[in-house]
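Private note to self, pasted from the team thread so I don't lose it. Backbone tokens:
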């Protein structure tokens, strides 16, 4: 239960309640405006109260958020965790108002217990006369008893745990800048695995405590910072120079080292990624651009990040945020910071160091960062999520391979029946910045801020019981609409429906799994049949039958079973350019009447064997899934 997969689910669940905290920071910022001059003297007090109460009730928010995240958004788990927190708070307060306080630890325990109880008891069966309280309705009852027991345990062990937490805080604090360095280093390393939220939860919401003038107690770096603790912000301030300046500098280094023909596209993509990191603190689109091509460079990045955090601490800079260290939060929370203005010059120096280091590394070690690979990726589809989702589902091994699917801000978090069925190359062509295999079928696919939308579209597809047949590119070159082929028979779709390619290399490969049913005597055309009954014609060039096989070499024969990317034939491109009417190479389905629906990728350059250039739903195959045929 508590393996890597569970930890990534828990990390994602802990991120959910974080989304409410930016509102608290905005309220506290607005409370500092001169409302009295506008004749509204009570507004600052009201806004301050509205902002601060969110941090006072953060344990309750975390309990509900974690329970929802671990139970696939079950309302029963969410309401059970909230009831559990009310019970816990009431019992501990009634025993001793100055004793055990609601904390992130209590919220996390109750949230985890509620999520576990939902998964354990959602199919719980009682005798018929009690079944009203069975299933998910048993979860609130269970959590009521659990919270009562947990509160009683905390009353007995509370002081010991407080002393332990205080000792841990003192131990971490005694490490001084080196402790900050370790946190910064581990934070960046865990970002790669999507587990950094677990580390953040400890330092942002557990380590250290502060009691304000009213006697309210706040735990952790973040609540203490917004409550006015001048010592808080040590574990957040150092992230600003890295996120606002260093990673945007990396993005510009990647742009400036891209090939000239790809630079306009890469520039657009990474300027947006740099702006996203600078403004909002979303860093994965930049970090994953070099994580997989140069993991050792990511390790250097982690060390530098920890070093910057250490330096920030030693300079006495204290700053905080409610979500992430972007420019928006920097300026909103600047009035609460200590020496916050120093982040700007420190960040500029940090950005310069990163820019020089990464440009030198990319050039010196010939790193294949975006814009330096052999061919373009289809990663700028302008948010065409409904098109991408079916192809992504196929690249994940189809719906029967998906055991669990969730999404956080920047990545899909998946548990798969067989992670070996993933087509990582296809996912990268579909816009994924990276694919992370955690073992045991647990996989993360980084799509940036489109991740949640992609998850929703895939969920819809899985409920429709529709299976896609995905086509790979049969040649390297440029994909064009079939209507643009310089031949009235193909352009008029008299042979069949599909797409065409203008090849720039002389090799034809199989676009999908099937059996060769025909090889034309002049070798310019190959016919395939798939297990779904699709009959696919690949026709190299127009009027190439007149060459009578000149310039063509067959690499497969009739009756052969072929797989996507398997070579079918070679052709001499200069000969075709000189003697054929056109290089256009149609790929058409000659029995389109059995196709239910069609999807085509953008008509752009493609690699030989590249997945996701076309997909169809076969009527016969869909009926099988519905039990019409066996």
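Design output:
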């Amino acid at each position: 239960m508590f393996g890597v997969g569970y930890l990534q689910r828990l990390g994602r669940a802990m991120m959910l309640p974080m989304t409410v905290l930016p509102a608290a920071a905005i309220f506290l910022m607005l409370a500092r405006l001169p409302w009295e001059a506008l004749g509204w003297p009570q507004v600052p007090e009201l806004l301050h109260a509205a902002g601060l109460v969110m941090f006072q009730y953060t344990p309750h928010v975390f309990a509900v958020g974690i329970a929802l995240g671990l139970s696939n958004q079950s309302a029963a788990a969410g309401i059970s965790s909230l009831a559990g927190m009310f019970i816990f708070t009431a019992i501990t307060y009634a025993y001793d108002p100055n004793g055990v306080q609601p904390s992130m630890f209590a919220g996390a325990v109750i949230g985890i217990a509620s999520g576990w109880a939902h998964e354990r008891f959602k199919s719980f069966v009682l005798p018929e006369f009690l079944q009203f309280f069975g299933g998910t309705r048993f979860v609130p009852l269970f959590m009521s008893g659990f919270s009562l027991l947990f509160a009683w345990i905390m009353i007995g062990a509370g002081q010991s745990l407080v002393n332990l937490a205080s000792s841990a805080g003192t131990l971490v604090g005694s490490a001084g800048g080196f402790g900050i360095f370790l946190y910064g280093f581990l934070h960046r390393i865990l970002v790669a695995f999507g587990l950094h939220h677990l580390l953040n939860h400890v330092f942002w919401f557990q380590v250290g405590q502060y009691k304000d003038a009213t006697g309210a107690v706040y735990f952790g770096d973040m609540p203490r910072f917004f409550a006015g603790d001048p010592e808080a912000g040590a574990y957040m301030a150092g992230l600003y120079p890295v996120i606002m300046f260093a990673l945007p500098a990396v993005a510009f280094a990647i742009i400036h080292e891209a090939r000239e023909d790809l630079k306009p596209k890469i520039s657009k993509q990474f300027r947006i990624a740099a702006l996203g990191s600078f403004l909002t603190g979303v860093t994965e689109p930049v970090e994953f651009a070099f994580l997989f091509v140069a993991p050792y460079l990511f390790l250097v990045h982690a060390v530098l990040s920890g070093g910057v955090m250490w330096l920030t601490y030693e300079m006495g800079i204290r700053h905080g945020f409610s979500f992430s260290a972007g420019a928006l939060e920097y300026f909103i929370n600047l009035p609460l910071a200590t020496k916050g203005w120093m982040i700007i010059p420190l960040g500029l120096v940090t950005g310069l160091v990163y820019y020089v280091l990464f440009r030198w590394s990319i050039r010196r070690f010939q790193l294949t960062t975006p814009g330096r690979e052999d061919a373009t990726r289809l990663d700028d589809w302008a948010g065409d999520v409904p098109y991408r989702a079916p192809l992504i589902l196929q690249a994940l091994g189809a719906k029967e391979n998906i055991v669990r699917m969730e999404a956080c801000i920047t990545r899909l978090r998946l548990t798969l029946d067989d992670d070996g069925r993933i087509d990582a190359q296809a996912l990268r062509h579909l816009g994924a910045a990276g694919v992370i295999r955690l073992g045991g079928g647990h996989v993360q696919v980084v799509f940036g801020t489109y991740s949640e939308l992609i998850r929703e579209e895939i969920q819809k597809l899985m409920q429709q019981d529709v299976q896609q047949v995905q086509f790979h590119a049969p040649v390297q070159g440029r994909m064009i609409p079939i209507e643009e082929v310089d031949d009235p028979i193909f352009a008029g779709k008299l042979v069949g429906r599909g797409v065409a390619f203008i090849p720039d290399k002389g090799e034809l490969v199989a676009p999908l799994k099937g059996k060769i049913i025909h090889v034309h005597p002049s070798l310019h055309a190959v016919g395939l049949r798939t297990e779904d009954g699709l009959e696919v014609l690949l026709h190299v060039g127009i009027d190439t039958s007149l060459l009578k096989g000149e310039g063509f070499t067959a690499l497969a024969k009739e009756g052969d079973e072929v797989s996507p990317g398997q070579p079918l034939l070679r052709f001499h491109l200069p000969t075709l350019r000189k003697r054929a009417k056109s290089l256009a190479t149609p790929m058409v389905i000659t029995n389109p009447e059995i196709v239910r629906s069609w999807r085509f990728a953008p008509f752009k350059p493609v690699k030989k064997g590249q997945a996701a250039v076309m997909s169809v739903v076969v009527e016969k195959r869909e009926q099988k899934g519905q039990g019409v045929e066996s």
